Amino acid sequence: MPKSTHRPLFTTTGETLVIADFTPRPPRTPRGPGPYRRLFTHPGTRAFTAGNLLARLPMGMFSVSAVVMIAGTRGSYALAGAVSATGLAATALLAPFTARLVDRHGQARIALPATLLAALGSLALLLCVRRDAPAWTLFAAYAATATTPNIGGMSRARWAHLLKGDDKALHTANSFEQAADELCFMLGPVLAALLCGTLFPEAGTLVAALLLVTGMLLFTAQRSTEPPVQQQTHAKTPLRAPGMPPLLLACLAMGAVFGSMEVVTIAFADARGHASAAGVVLGLQAAGSCGAGLVYGALKPRGRAETRHPWCLAAMTALLTLPLLAAGTTGSLPLLAAALLIAGMATAPTMVTTMTLVQERTPAGRLNEGMTLAVTGLLGGIAGGSAIGGWITEHISPTAAYGVPLTAAALALMISLAATP
What we know:
Layout: E1 5-10, E2 16-21, H1 35-39, H2 45-56, H3 62-74, H4 77-105, H5 107-130, H6 135-143, H7 151-162, H8 167-198, H9 203-221, H10 244-271, H11 278-298, H12 305-319, H13 321-329, H14 333-343, H15 347-361, H16 367-395, H17 398-401, H18 403-419
Antiparallel strand pairs: 1-2
């Protein structure tokens, strides 16, 4: 029965009569689904998302698995690091060409064969390590894994196709994808270390290859959500598109933030006798980014992406002063972990805005290539930032090296400001 209200009436004798008013209240309007639930009301989105998450998780596993596997069997971290760096360099060179083929011929026709070739490269590396093959074979085998497609870019391309014209929903989708990146790079190394440490040194590489192939099979099977191939006869290369060169330079500087932060944090923890805690500390930074990305995606962004971009980089630069202060004034690893958790909250909004700009500035029919070029810039920055951060750590101190990610973020900010009209 609807809830009633009561109106008191008074008689001439002073007695009070109460008359119940059974006028029903208007029913409450049911709340609609949240922004993330609305994303997955489109047919096929759940299936391709499940596939891309399975295929994306190994991206955080392969490097750690290779280092543990090679160092554990060959007894040389120098060799393991050199092999890993070779794979990173090969990926940076080959990934744009793979993405160009994906744009030209479709995701299913290119991504699946390229993934199978990359998985064979991982298995070849495993066999070379297992059979004690010459060192040069390790470099050749790991370089073959560079054909791995940019699964995050292909997933974003699907969202851009499905949500064309709905900028708010596309912003939410890009935020979800960035949070997924952070989650996979947070869980991947932990899973790889657990597999290699508890089973056998090759277990991480083996499981990563299996997850990659399985996820890509599921992802490419969802043909209804695959973007159609567009004619590219008159399409400019993304490198020449207006606004793209400075954006890619900013990606290079942001990559230096991530690469130097990883090396410096590991060295800082090791200097205090807690090397094993470095992964947890870095995981907190990724957790901060993941949480901030989900919140950012639920909000309605104001203004244009090119206007928001410098503000996001300014926030990243400001928050990166916290790890430098925590390391320099206290030297406490728990305080550093808290500082990285807070500093990480600027990462996802910055990356989401960056990828939005990439989508806006990339010519039609070249979206995968444009986003892969941004990832290539990030990879190049990661390699350079790791080298600079390692050099300053070794020749000065890990504390001073926390100035490298701060400087790189400030450089990205200046590039963005110079390019903003």
